[in-house]
Specification:
- With about 160 residues, this protein is mainly alpha-helical.
- The chain contains seven helices and two strands; from the N terminus they run E-H-E-H-H-H-H-H-H.
- The protein has a two-stranded antiparallel sheet.
- The radius of gyration is 15 Å and the shape is globular.
- The two termini are about 20 Å apart.
């Protein structure tokens, strides 16, 4: 796994949001307020891939299970990663990235387990590991992996994701 310097992805969501609530991907920019690479070393391509699959870049997305925002944070994960307002874009992203960083450490960099835990919960992945069987989790992990792989290839080519 390539771990680059994490740069917090911030979207100018208010003005750029379309009528459907989806921001234009071309208006994204990277900044690092209050974040140091020593704390979060999560590949930007992974964060973008999670956003693609979780919310399709809609900062106002709400799942039937109560996950919200770009990173689709669940209510129980907010306090763990010190998120006060899951609907606030920067808070949501920082919290989602912090949660990813924690999962990467917990599962020693195995992104299959990390993404399985992100969608199904770390307890299920800790209990069952790669033997955990769920079509939804399999499809989710496959979708994120596909996006991540594509984004890594594009970043090596110097293209935009």
């Amino acid at each position: 796994m390539r771990t680059g310097t994490l740069l917090l992805l911030v979207l100018a969501c208010g003005a750029e949001a379309s009528a459907q609530g989806s921001p234009h991907r071309g208006n994204t920019h990277f900044v690092a307020p209050s974040i140091t690479p020593a704390i979060y070393q999560v590949p930007v391509e992974l964060v973008e891939s999670v956003i693609d699959v979780e919310s399709n870049w809609n900062p106002y997305a709400v799942s039937p299970k109560g996950a919200v925002g770009l990173m689709q944070l669940m209510p129980g994960n907010g306090p763990r990663v010190r998120v006060r307002n899951r609907f606030q874009v920067e808070d949501n992203l920082r919290g989602g990235v912090a949660y990813l960083a924690w999962l990467i450490q917990l599962f020693r960099g195995d992104l299959r387990l990390v993404m399985g835990a992100y969608v199904a919960g770390q307890d299920r992945m800790l209990s069952h590991g790669l033997t955990y069987s769920s079509r939804e989790v399999y499809e989710y992990v496959s979708n994120v992996a596909r996006q991540y792989h594509w984004r890594r290839i594009e970043s090596k080519r110097g293209g935009k994701s």
